[in-house]
Each structure stands twice: as structure tokens, then as C-alpha cells.
Design a protein that fits this description.
By secondary structure, this protein is of the alpha/beta class. The chain has eight helices and twelve strands. The protein has a five-stranded parallel beta sheet, sandwiched between helices.
Length: about 230
Amino acid sequence: MSKIALVDDDRNILTSVSMTLEAEGFEVETYNDGQQALDAFNKKLPDMAVLDIKMPRMDGMDLLQRLRQKTQMPVIFLTSKDDEIDEVLGLRMGADDYVKKPFSQRLLVERIRALLRRQEAVAGDAAGTGPETKVMERGNLRMDPLRHSVAWKGNDVSLTVTEFLLLQALAQRPGFVKSRDQLMDVAYDDQVYVDDRTIDSHIKRLRKKMRSADADFSAIETLYGIGYRYNEE
């Protein structure tokens, strides 16, 4: 049974969503603000967190930033209808997905299940049961699915599940273009719709992390209107 942390200052959302998730077989922990959640997470991490952005004491952005200092646990943001800037910023900070308010609880459940399946797929590879278990080396890049580890020029780079899958898909065939639709298929379940901006935001976050290991990193090329390509250096 997967444990989901739900963090929102709206008690109605906490009550209704937690009831839905529990009916779907999840174990749910609820928190009214980011600080309360962080205190609990410092003792024991859940399997996934669903975070509202605008909360008292500590908002979702700040909580995510603190979480990413120690864990790549999957995170879904809940964003207000018109907060497009928050959506993009949240993805660039390391969120795996977002759902707009007001939202369908069925949609949220599908997003949660899709993200958990991706995480389980990576864990399956780590156990040696998945198809992509071999260490992959492409120039300065080294990816080890067994350990979910990435290194660039010998420097470790910590990636979320989504970022890892996107980089792996691009680096498997250097020089070949991957469209945004193809990358969506890699990173998301077929039943889950995301727009181009979501993939772009993940790629920007991925580039930023790689450049933290090497300021001159340029292996991921954007082909405007087409997609992305990995160029082996």
C-alpha cells in the first residue's frame, strides 16, 4: 500500500481527496501547511507528496525546495486555475507533475497512479527485472539504472524519476530527434495528458542540473518546433 502525503490549507480538499484516495487503496497522511508536513517528512518520508502551492507558514514551493535537498520522492503540485507561472516554476524546481484547481479527483488519482508506476518501473530496473538495466555511457555521460544514478564527467547528478527517464530516452540514440510527443510517452502514462510546456519545463530543469556539474554542458539540443536531440560529446 503506497503512502500519499496530502498538503493543503483547504480542509475541504484534505477531507474529500483523502477519502477518495483511501477508497482507491492508498494510505493517506494530511497536513494543513508546509511546515507541518516538513516536520513529519523529517521523521519519515511518504511514497509521494501532493502539495498545494499557496499555504501559510511554508508554501509548496519552499517545501519542495527543501525536499529536493534530500530526496527525489515524486511530487505533484496542485495549482490554481490561472497560476501558469507557478506551474512552470514548480516543474523547474523539481516537481514531477501538476494538476489544476478545480480538479477532477479521478484525474488526480490517475496522475498519482501513473507516477507511481513510473517509479516502480525504475525500481524494477534497480532489481534487475526491467529491460533497461545495463550501464549506459555516452561520451561524458554515465547512467546506471540499477542504482538510478547519473554522472557527468565523473560528477554525480541527482535526478527525479521523470528527469532520469527523459535523459535516458534522449541519450539512448545520440543524434536522433525525439519529438515532445515521444518524450511524453516515455515520461507519462498513455492515459495522462500533458501539454508541451510540461516537457519543456522538465528539460530546462534537467539542463540546469547537468550544468551544475559542468557549466559548459550542451549535449541536449532544442530543435524548435520539432523536439530535442542528444549530441554525444
